[in-house]
Structures are given as C-alpha cells and as structure tokens.
Amino acid sequence: MRSSGSRLASRGVREWEVPMPIKSILTFYDGSAASETQLGAAITLAKRFDAHIDVAVIAYVQSDLALGSGGGPMGRTPVRQAEDEAKTLSAPIRERLAAEKLLGRTLPLVTRPEDLGRTFGDRARYTDLVVLAKPIGNDYYNSTPQSLEGALFRGDGAVLVCPEGPVPEPHRVLIAWDGSPPALHAVRRALTFLTGARMAEIVMVNPADDVASSADDLSVLLTHHGMSARVSRIAAGSGSDARILAQAQSDTGADWIIAGAYGHSRFRELLLGGVTRELPTLTKVPLFMVH
C-alpha cells in the first residue's frame, strides 16, 4: 500500500510540500502517575504527527529561600537537590524517546510548587501543542491544574487534556459553542488537528438567539474543511454546563471535545469554577482547549 505522500507525489505534489499538522509537542514529567499518562499520550501523538517532543522534567524546591537571591548554604542545598532529582528523572525519559525513535529532549525545570503555572506556562509559549493528563480528584489542586492554567493563560497554548488509555484520532468531534472569542479561537486552532475529522457536533447549552445564529455560521466554516456539521441546542438543567457537555459527548460518541477556556481572569475562573475548571475533570475523551 502506498503512503499518502506517494499518492500525492503521483499527482504531482511533492511530499515535502505537504505540511504536517504540528511540529512540536510539550508535556511534563515529575514521576507522578498523571505525568506517566501524559508522557505516554505525548509520545503517541509525536509518533502520529512525526513531531519533536519536549519533556519538561519538573523537580520541586520546597524551601521559600531556595530560589531567592540570598545565596546562603541553606538556600542553595534544596536547589541542588532538585537539580539532581531532575537529572535522575531525565535519564530514563531520554532512553525511552530514543527507543521510540523520536526526536526530542528533556528540559529540567526546577521550581517551587506554587510557581509551576508560571514556569511551565513560559515554556508552553514555544510549542504547537501541550499534552496533559486528566486531573483526578484532589490532583486538580496540584501539578496538573497549575500546568493547565499556565499553558492556557500565560503560554497562550493549545492544550490537549488526555484521560488514561489510547489517544483516538478525532474523526467525530464535539464543539462546546457559546459564540465567544475563546470558543472561536479554539475551533480555529483545532482545525490544524482535524484534517481527518468527518463529523462535528456543535453543542450549545441554553443559547441566546445570536449565539444560535453564530453556530449556523460555524457549521458553514466546518463544511469548507470537509466535515459534516450538526447543531444541537440543549436546555440548561439541574446539572452544570460541564456535565451537560460531558453527557453530550457520551451521547454523540465524539472522539474529542473542542472548548474555549473562559473567564474574566484565571483567578476568578478558579474561584468560581465553571466549564474551564470542571470539564477537564469529567471528560472521558481528549479535550482540546485554547484561551
């Protein structure tokens, strides 16, 4: 069977002229079960897209003085310990990337736990896709949510939140639509990854008339990209919008969910909850998010 590149070449299109959807992927590893999940997902996607993979190897410094400018022995020791830990964690990851025949690197990231969102967000500015695990239980208040918020709001990154298990290709996608700029931004960024998508389910929860009209316009855009599109309006019930969207994914059999990251500010969003906070904890399929 000939490759897609060979078929294109037979039509007079050079293989090198056909761009891959993405060229770089970022995830992080800190030895936790969640980081094992996201490393596996990132490797799967890097192989699928023939992309370079960066793994930020995180080692935490617990001392308040450790990253300050005082420079005394008590301040330097925690940093050195964290640097050694990052080196220890990095070695098997480099071996794994080599075994998978992937182009990639490990990036030691020594930080205080409370600074993870900022430091990881800075790194997320320089990649095409950030891959993170689904937050589970109290993990929402630990590394996964901090890195998610940092990547979305500080790094302006495209983030794929992946539950455990294989990462399916997005043949059928659910778009959480409210007509807002973040929702539109998410769809536009997602189109790069949806070259094989056949069906888009545009789901609105209790929409206003102007939002419903914008969904029809969105469906036209998606048809230009080779997808069939169906618009669904769901009345708000007793559950949250995030739970309604998660149920809609189950009902439609969507492979991925596409959603904007909402809120007046990331701090207010975190305090008040909302779709941006809750949906990553509920999703059973990869969730693509953009602010």
Automatic annotation (TrEMBL):
Tell me which InterPro entries the record gives: Universal_stress_UspA, UspA
Offer one Pfam family short name for this entry: Usp
| Domain UspA, first and last residues per copy | 171-291
**What positions belong to coiled-coil segments?**
none
State the similarity comment. Answer: Belongs to the universal stress protein A family.
Against PANTHER family, the record matches this protein to: STRESS RESPONSE PROTEIN NHAX (PTHR46268), UNIVERSAL STRESS PROTEIN HP_0031 (PTHR46268:SF15)
Q: What is this protein called?
A: Universal stress protein
Q: Which organism is it from?
A: Histidinibacterium aquaticum
